[in-house]
Amino acid sequence: MIVPQLPRIFLSPPHMSGREQNYINAAFETNWIAPLGPNVDGFEKELAAYVGVKGAAALSSGTAAIHLALQLLDVQARDRVFCSTLTFVASANPIVYEGAEPIFIDSEPKTWNMSPDALERAFIDAEQEGWLPKAVIVVNLYGQSAKMDELLAICDRYGVPVIEDAAESLGAEYKGKKSGTFGKFGVFSFNGNKIITTSGGGMLVSNDKEALHKARFLATQARDPAPHYQHSEVGYNYRMSNILAGVGRAQLEVLDERVAARRAIFKHYMEAFGEIDGFEFMPELKGTLHNRWLTTLTVDREKLGVSPIELIEALAEENIEARPVWKPLHLQPLFEGTAYYSHGEGRSVSDELFKNGLCLPSGSNMTEEQQQRVIDKVKETVKVKAGSL
Ligand SMILES: *Cc1c(COP(=O)(O)O)cnc(C)c1O
């Protein structure tokens, strides 16, 4: 007998508004199909205005934006870059593209983001050895801003610029200011799973308009001003297409609605699981607005009799996609042997979060009924496992 499966619930699927087609049609009607064009210019201006910075450069991905930020900060072979360890590999890969060396910094428990204590120790060691990193990449995980005041104070003291990887935190805030606007450069991603999407794309933002001008130059094969094709530097093909930028403009119009929807889903989960001793949701630091891109929580095996992986497997049986928390980069085979600074001597917060963390489906287009399917399955699994102890 074939058991009919309920429709799949994805972790974070795209959520179109219906207005995207208008911008795409405009691009087709004017034949602005090539990269660049009015949608790209419009998307850059609108996003810069939304987050409150002087300018933005629309690119083919968030990874490309990080890569260009490193280039603009003159990161070269054998330079060192401090980077959050608890993140997607794309935060650190561009360091390797440049032949530079990443040094990973642990999380702290209040934001799950870069630990000021660990960062401070990394700087002290570096200074004693007679070098400084060229840049620090601070990630805002799952839509929660890092402790920016503390982290920036340390970086400023050493005169080292910050790249804010805000790929997951578009629409979030820190002390009333939009996430992604705290460093020398901010990076956003419009990959298919992010809070708004262009199917693929990214944005580099900054208050340094000259640097953004250079970013656009590098992103279009570094072509010198000449009637023929002349090049004095290595460039990239990193610009966003005018069609995809049109999708981005329409998505940006509904960003605040998307943040509200994801926060409502988080609230629903929290209310449903609030009574269960052993679940702990990712905190929202006082004075910040978490966009709740993904609802994440830790699972206490002792109390609940179930591990995150067992919950993920149970949800998969119901055609529901859930995931562990990012595997820290200092634990990745790719980065074996890389230097790492933990939050406390003998305590690695990111290791704990990876071991115990769980990401629940959080798409802004999830129906109440779908949310209930997730909640019911989680509750049932916990009950069965706890009962069988
Ligand atoms: C998605 C993501 C990126 C990369 O963005 P792409 O647009 O997929 O290249 C970088 N950093 C973090 C933290 C991300 O979640």
From TrEMBL:
One of its GO terms (biological process) is polysaccharide biosynthetic process. Signal peptide: none annotated. Its cofactor is pyridoxal 5'-phosphate. The modification N6-(pyridoxal phosphate)lysine is found at K194. The active site is at K194. It comes from Bacillus aerolatus. One of its GO terms (molecular function) is pyridoxal phosphate binding. This is Aminotransferase class I/II-fold pyridoxal phosphate-dependent enzyme. InterPro entries: DegT/StrS_aminotransferase, PyrdxlP-dep_Trfase, PyrdxlP-dep_Trfase_major, PyrdxlP-dep_Trfase_small. Belongs to the DegT/DnrJ/EryC1 family. It holds the Pfam family DegT_DnrJ_EryC1. Keywords: Aminotransferase, Pyridoxal phosphate, Transferase.
